[in-house]
Amino acid sequence: MKKLINSPETVLDDALSGMAAAHPGLRVDTEARVITRASGTRPGKVAVVSGGGSGHEPLHGGFVGAGMLAAACPGEVFTSPVPDQIVAAARAADAGAGVLFVVKNYTGDVLNFQVAAELAEDDGIRVETVLVDDDVAVRDSTHTAGRRGTGATLFVEKIAGALAEQGADLAAVAKAARAVNGASRSFAVALTSCTTPAAGRPGFELPDDEIEVGVGIHGEPGRRREKMRPAREIVATALDAVLEDQPLAAGDETLVLVNGLGGTPLIELYVVYKEVADALAERGVRIARRLVGNYVTSLDMAGVSLTLCRTDTDMLALWDAPVDTPALHWG
Amino acid sequence: MKKLINSPETVLDDALSGMAAAHPGLRVDTEARVITRASGTRPGKVAVVSGGGSGHEPLHGGFVGAGMLAAACPGEVFTSPVPDQIVAAARAADAGAGVLFVVKNYTGDVLNFQVAAELAEDDGIRVETVLVDDDVAVRDSTHTAGRRGTGATLFVEKIAGALAEQGADLAAVAKAARAVNGASRSFAVALTSCTTPAAGRPGFELPDDEIEVGVGIHGEPGRRREKMRPAREIVATALDAVLEDQPLAAGDETLVLVNGLGGTPLIELYVVYKEVADALAERGVRIARRLVGNYVTSLDMAGVSLTLCRTDTDMLALWDAPVDTPALHWG
């Protein structure tokens, strides 16, 4: 294993220290492993809080900042944060209007956030939870009962974060977050495996001429192995899977995320985006907004995920609202 | 070879079509292979123009936009743009105040930009050129006489672009660009090779337990091969090389770029940044601003480059000036 780390045991603490040093706009509690805005949540605003295993950077810590997350709590690589840590994040982020937990649907995360929600409520913090389960590839998987959560997490965090910033109450922010998740579908394809620092070897084996179709963000198995194919055909497979689950008609508007899994060069992601744009144009579906880049990664895995979110005017206005985080910045 | 492309022959055209579709703020001439701002260069402003081989994305196309480049002209992967293409970029970008070519010091780029400068001047466009040659690893290399150009390109393009936006004349913008290059030094370490679509196999072989110390952005050989080591030691090697060439004293201020070469996860780049920050703090050198991410890449190469630029108040003000491009956005 060749990784730019000091040791598998210190990778998360070292990376958090690096984030603290790199981003003056963040406050990183390296002991509690909680990342908040240096300026804190504005009084009276709902705090959108997320977390999960590390190894998916910039998710979630890179999305902390005005207009998006109030706090993030990263667990060890591919491992859920523990309940105490999640409660610490809720405490640090709550500004009196309650906390929305954004939880990707993996069994460990779901359980730990549930325990944390109860503990936080014992502390007098109001908590709502939204489960993100956008991955249409498989029904159940290694780490999950039901669908896995993936790229839609970014959409949920951005849109819920914008609504919280505008002063909406907890119920409204939770409702919007659930609507975004409900409108989103994802599908991923891996060209290579990925290697966690602790394991030191690839999580699965993939022959030199094969791809994993429907892979999960921890390298969980997808639907099948296939021979490598041109980008256009891979995009067609991913898009068919997404649209089979949630049809989009001519005239519908969608957010698109073409997301690199960590080891794929940006030039290839633009090739993929061209194919997505062409295929949606053929169907008369309008891409209202899009992101192309590495946002929800799986360490060094080569591959791509595609996420579509059927959108409307209100959702778009929240998408366009200003955001100021390490990984997303506009407005 | 597994890459998300349709064919090695179409990768650049497909990627440019993808960029065109993804970024409404850019105008992409896919025939001439020139990327400009959709709004054009403001009349009377100097146009900062850059280009070079593709495969280093987001460099240069991702840096086109207000406050940075007026145009970029990407060649085939790891191949210089041709003179006609560079002239087309100059023509498209010139707004009457002349054009600054930012050229990384590789033989093909230097020659083609020189021919293009003469052709553009025949057309009545005033041209100045700044050569970027910040890589201290080796004196000459496979593609270069003299030092190679690498991470400092981002600093030059940002700071020259900001000065151009403020209305400085061509001589002043060129002078500032040369000053940034003169104050910058870089050093890179590769953990893996990279694979161009045309070659279809890694450009060099690197054993599972070795790193290439001082690698170039096309995989050119560095100073030596070494056994893999902890991040702290790799950073010490890179930082020593940079500071040996340009010493920084306690109290000096520097810009820092911790740049992923394409295949390295962001979590590792933060580990590297922590080590850089610690080592500079020990020496009393102040990090005025910093970037951590994938900006000047080498396709799927795993590894990192470190760039330092000794800075002053004027340079910092230009660094902080607003920028609105696909890859850099603030202010």
Could you give the count of β-strands of chain A? 14
What's the helix count of chain A? 8
What low-confidence regions of chain A span 5 or more consecutive residues with pLDDT below 50?
A: none
Just name the CATH architecture of the largest domain in chain A: 3-Layer(aba) Sandwich
Q: What is the radius of gyration of chain A?
A: 19 Å
Tally of structural domains of chain A: 2
Name of the CATH homologous superfamily of the largest domain in chain A: Dihydroxyacetone kinase, domain 1
What do you see in this structure?
Chains A, B: InterPro entries: DhaK_1, DhaK_dom, Dihydroxyacetone_Kinase. The structure is a homodimer of 331-residue chains. The first copy, chain A, has 331 residues and is α/β, with parallel strands linked by helices. Chain A has two domains: 11-182, Dihydroxyacetone kinase, domain 1 (Rossmann fold); 184-320, Hypothetical Protein Tm841, Chain: A,domain 3, CATH 3.30.1180.20. Helices cover 32% and strands 24% of the residues of chain A. In chain A, the strands form three sheets. A six-stranded mixed sheet of chain A has the order 1-2-4-3-5-6, with helices on both faces. Chain A has a six-stranded mixed sheet with strand order 9-8-7-12-10-11. The first copy, chain A, has a two-stranded antiparallel ribbon with strand order 13-14. In chain A, helix 3 (107-122) links the parallel strand 5 and strand 6. Chain A is globular. Chain A starts with 10 loop residues before the first helix and ends with a strand. At the A-B interface, helix 1, helix 6, helix 7, strand 11 and strand 14 of A face helix 1, helix 6, helix 7, strand 11 and strand 14 of B.
